[in-house]
Amino acid sequence: MLRDLGLPTGDRDSEESGQRFPDGCHFRIEVPSVNSVECAARILSESVRRGFTINRLTETLGSYRHTAAQVREYVKLGEEYGVEILMSVGPRATYDIGATVQTRQGVRIGYRLRGQDQVVRALEDVRRAVDLGVRGFVVYDEGLLSVLGELRSSGKLPADLSLKVSAHCGHGNPASARLLERLGADSFNPVRDLTLPMVGALRSSISIPIDIHVDNPHGSGGFVRTFDAPEFVRIAAPVHLKTGNSALDGHGVVPTMDQVESILTQVEIVSEFVDRYLPSARQSPNAKRAHDDSE
Length: 295
Hints:
Shape: globular
CATH architecture: Alpha-Beta Barrel
Number of strands: 8
Oligomer: single chain
Radius of gyration: 18 Å
Order of helices and strands: EHEHEHEHEHEHEHEHH
Strand content: 5-15%
CATH class: Alpha Beta
């Protein structure tokens, strides 16, 4: 019955993915939890100086935690380095006054929105950031994802808006992944502790990129799967390798400059390991570099 629905009948052996990014490449590097423009500027400038490519930065503190000038600076950095910048939608359960999310059982809520006013505010947070030039968002609520997807389809939000589903939504199976794709997700971040066969099953069910944590803060496991990075690329392409935030204690924090150095080191190591153990894999160049090369 599952096969008739186009879903795998179980977790798959680690067969090679035949899917690619639109540019024909297998993987991109994403650095998460870049929660200040100063950290973003340092990470991007150092990556160029050290000779490795970062394709995407994600801010996870929340767009509405930044001034308009700071949001514009994120946008400017993205344009300068040809890097995709994703801002997190600000209002979410952990910032709300509801007490359930603070309880032991409430952890199941994740960052989802409580009440329709919060949906309105989340939409307003997106509209504010769009007006400031942002075109990519991390989304933590499936209902909000559906709203944003419909508004984008109807032309009430920009057609080039990119929507990424966060791991904080807690999804990790092919049926859920396919549902999120149908709701408008442009990339999907599953829970962080999936085995390689589980990741392979996800790839067989969706066509959008999968965003996979190679390493993690202590607050969400603290694991470092550097040797799995080449395998993630092989079986899950097109894939964003999320790396660097093992240097942090949690996701919604602002890294210190010492932690930024550790982030850069981890990104460089992951880049090295993919090149060493899967030399056939191609990483997308950032947009600016591709433009410069074409000239």
